[in-house]
Write a sequence for this structure.
């Protein structure tokens, strides 16, 4: 976590003040937030500030029955709730209709060309590739005068699988001297070719392999339903990892040839399941109709096609080579450059970097991008307080007090510290509604098809953005020099298992 280098000290009343009604769990969160921690293995540890005899350690049946009687004693509320929750999900029953009515798809700042059609990642975790290609397609649509256009996500997906396999095997070799049961090695083995990714990862792929239209390399079954492919590749990579670890210790001279053979095997598996893609440097032939229905054709290489996107973006006062990944991680100091240990895809490619700033800085940069007509890639925890059918992300969406007589009180930092929240999904901002200088709600382009939300579009309240948005990727011109200069820092390295290492 962000405080992993802090000195470990036991909880005591000198470190944290505890009110009479404050729970032990709340005390623990305060202690973590203040940089303190417990180390049960410290032989010099002071005794805990409580007496084990003061509490009952195990549950008793009479106690549980007494609690149940208390719940059932209120026939108008709890009995009705039990009957209701038995027939439908509480998220549906407790939807706050007043909040929903305010979450309209009306915005006074919206980019002129949002990009269509709404894309669909299907049963795969490729949201970061869909969000990034939905950003890149806008300048291409302008250049080629297109009404609708979609870039091939499967093309980048193919190369990412192979690059991640190579990355994983390199990290396995680097950590060969660590115990197999170490937290780092176990984390590397957990999901070596995950579908997820980050902006810097897609930047690496586009720089090395380019872009192609969806029609040139469309999705097949394995691209849309990636679980079986991922399982097979993961099992093989775990086999490879054990062999490479043994070789590193006993026959290091064989490492290079054996690793090459393993990557070649993964390349074969991925090619058979996704199909061979266009060569990055060879010319493809693309036919299309422009917005006026006129037939057009182009001859271009994937790398050349990608340059068309970046050149057009540059002409529109945005430069992809200068795109900054702003994040909001309140566990760590603002104005600090962050990275994650051993996280990436392309060996010797651009590293994962995060500029940690407050939400006001992120929102100001996003609004400036939108006012200039540019879509914004952003990462969030989409599973909280949202309704995919309504297309709403709103902290007030659920009335938990009505249904359960409870509220949720974890702060954003505490959610990260306790693994309650992390950056799990990437989407695109295309609009914002501003009143009296303040953003009220944001227009979101998702990649779940047109059957959800408002024909695929979502609305996100500003309050939800504060709580569950962790990242926005913006051009350096739309932030201050002070923010740009953070890139010159030596980054703080977060451990591989940190929540900021979760891939959208």
């Amino acid at each position: 976590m962000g405080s992993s280098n802090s000195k470990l000290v036991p909880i005591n009343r000198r470190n944290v003040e505890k009110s009479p009604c404050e729970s032990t769990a709340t005390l623990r969160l305060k202690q973590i937030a203040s940089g303190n921690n417990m180390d049960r293995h410290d032989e010099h540890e002071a005794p805990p500030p409580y007496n084990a005899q003061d509490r009952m350690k195990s549950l008793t049946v009479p106690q549980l029955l007494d609690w149940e009687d208390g719940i059932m004693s209120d026939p108008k509320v709890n009995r009705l709730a039990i009957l209701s929750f038995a027939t439908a999900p509480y998220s549906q029953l407790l939807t706050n209709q007043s909040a929903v009515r305010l979450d309209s798809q009306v915005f006074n700042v919206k980019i002129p060309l949002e990009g269509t059609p709404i894309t669909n990642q299907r049963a795969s975790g490729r949201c970061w590739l869909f969000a990034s290609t939905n950003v890149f397609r806008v300048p291409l649509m302008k250049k080629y005068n297109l009404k609708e256009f979609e870039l091939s996500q499967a093309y980048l997906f193919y190369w990412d699988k192979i690059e991640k396999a190579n990355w994983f095997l390199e990290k396995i070799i680097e950590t060969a001297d660590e115990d197999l049961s170490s937290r780092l090695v176990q984390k590397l083995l957990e999901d070596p070719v995950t579908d997820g990714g980050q902006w810097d990862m897609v930047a690496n792929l586009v720089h090395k392999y380019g872009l192609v239209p969806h029609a040139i390399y469309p999705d097949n079954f394995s691209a849309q339903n990636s679980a079986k492919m991922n399982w097979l590749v993961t099992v093989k990579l775990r086999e490879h990892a054990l062999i490479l670890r043994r070789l590193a210790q006993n026959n290091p001279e064989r490492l290079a040839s054996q690793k090459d053979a393993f990557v070649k095997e993964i390349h074969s598996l991925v090619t058979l399941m996704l199909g061979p893609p266009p060569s990055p440097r060879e010319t493809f032939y693309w036919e299309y109709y422009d917005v006026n229905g006129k037939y057009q054709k182009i001859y271009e290489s994937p790398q050349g096609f990608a340059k068309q996107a970046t050149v057009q973006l540059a002409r529109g006062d945005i430069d992809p080579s200068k795109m900054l990944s702003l994040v909001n991680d309140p566990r760590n100091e603002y104005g600090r450059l962050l990275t994650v240990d051993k996280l990436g895809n392309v060996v010797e490619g651009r590293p994962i970097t995060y500029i940690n700033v407050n939400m006001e800085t992120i929102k100001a940069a996003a609004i400036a991008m939108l006012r200039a007509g540019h879509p914004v890639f952003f990462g969030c925890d989409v599973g909280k307080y949202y309704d995919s059918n309504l297309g709403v992300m709103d902290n007030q969406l659920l009335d938990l007090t009505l249904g359960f007589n409870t509220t949720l009180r974890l702060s954003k930092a505490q959610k990260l510290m306790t693994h309650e929240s992390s950056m799990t999904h990437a989407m695109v901002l295309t609009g914002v509604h501003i009143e009296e200088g303040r953003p009220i709600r944001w227009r979101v382009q998702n990649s779940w098809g047109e059957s959800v939300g408002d024909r695929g579009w979502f609305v996100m309240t500003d309050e939800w953005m504060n709580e569950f948005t962790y990242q926005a990727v913006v051009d350096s011109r739309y932030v201050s020099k002070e923010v740009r200069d953070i890139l010159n820092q030596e980054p703080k390295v977060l451990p591989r298992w940190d929540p900021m290492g979760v891939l959208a």
